[in-house]
Amino acid sequence: MALAAPVLEQTYRYPFASSLLADGEGRRLRLATSGGPERNPEFFRGALLLPVIASDLLLTVGDVARARFHVPPQMLARILLLADPVATCADDRLRFEAFSACCSVYGRVDLLPTGFDGEIVGRGTTNVDMGPDLRAALASVQDRSELGLAVGSSSVEVIADGLSAVERRVPLPSRWVRGFLEVQAIQADLVPVAELDGPGLRAFFRSIPKSQPKGPVWLVPSGRGLRLSHHDPGRGAPWVAGLVRLRLFERAVRHATALRVFAIEGDGSSGWQLDVPGGRLTILLSPEVWRGFSGEGRALHRLAADSASGTVAAVRGGLGWEPHLDRDQLAVATGRTAREVDQALAALAVTGIVGYDLADGGYFRRELPFDLDRGERLQPRLRDARRLVNASAVHLESANVDGLTGWVAGGGGVEYRVRSSAEGWTCTCPWYGRHRGDRGPCKHVLAVQLAATDDGG
Predict the structure, then answer these.
(1) Residues contacting 395, CB < 8 A, separation 6+
(2) In three state form, how does the secondary structure of 221-237 look?
(3) Predicted TM-score of the model (pTM)
(4) Which of 67, 189, 194, 331 could form a cystine bridge with 261, CB 3.0-4.6 A?
């Protein structure tokens, strides 16, 4: 039923079908793209120096996009029509991102400078057509294969050799867009909890049971590795539900040299980053398989916060396509403080302008190839909060250094009390009582936050 959410009508036009073409004695990977700053732009053309590893990484992104862990089978075919990864070309790396069909897994592949040789002829972000024929071709790549990569096409004239244009009109679920915005907020809160070398990580992945455990499992350090415990060992040990989702790493584990694990204490969200020669694979897991990232709501506080629009605009204007955005350099360039730049980057992250990289511990430029001008319409809680403010349903009782207290009128003459403190926000409404803040703020908290910002501004 969750998939009945509003959709954005998005037209994908691919000038040709993605394919693996013969190129002399080698083969060249030609990815069709839709969108970008120019029509069908060509971002990159060159060779992938480690073809088997690159193929396995790209296939894993496709695996993520086609995986489902909590989706009714009758809805699967419709959802898979949307399973086109998003590609970003920056100054020294190529990134491919995707969500699982159920939105409970986010995956990203980073192809690093040591993994390719070629010319970056454009910078931008676009969605990439990776159909079944291309996947079959990638699966056939062997050690002695030569594999080139061309992302996009510079003109219609490149369309040749009998390749037909592909045009699909698909409804883009709002949950996909919300998921892209949410994972940036979640990644920024993750902290490292374990690091394993090649032998240790392979032993860990071998220990994952083939059948799904009935409940969560805890990650416990064991020598140079990790072991799984079905009982809480205490001491704030991170836990993972839906452990079977980690099987998405299976293609890439054989190439891995290191694994870093990230978590949020008491939350259940986790990040897994696998290093391979010439690249990196990152997978984020939501707290439960039935909890898609699109419904987490952690970005709502930042969307509701009235960040100084001048600072956000200045920071956005200073963004280049560097693989890592340097806060201090942006502060100097914009004349803002480091704290103001941090807040602006967080605001830009939840509008799709930048992404977050756990390996660098910071943001990178990435503009989603979707129309985000209507982004707030995709956030019903924030939309409802603004309606409450506009209807004068919010009364601020007190505001001081210790926190904020307000009342929000509900239906039937009921009022809900909202408080903020050093520990966070609370509300007396039933929604907050069910979720206790672990799914983001309720509409009443957002309404008080908005009203307090208006009063202060």
Answers:
(1) 406, 407, 408, 409
(2) EECCEEEEECCCCCCCC
(3) 0.77
(4) 194
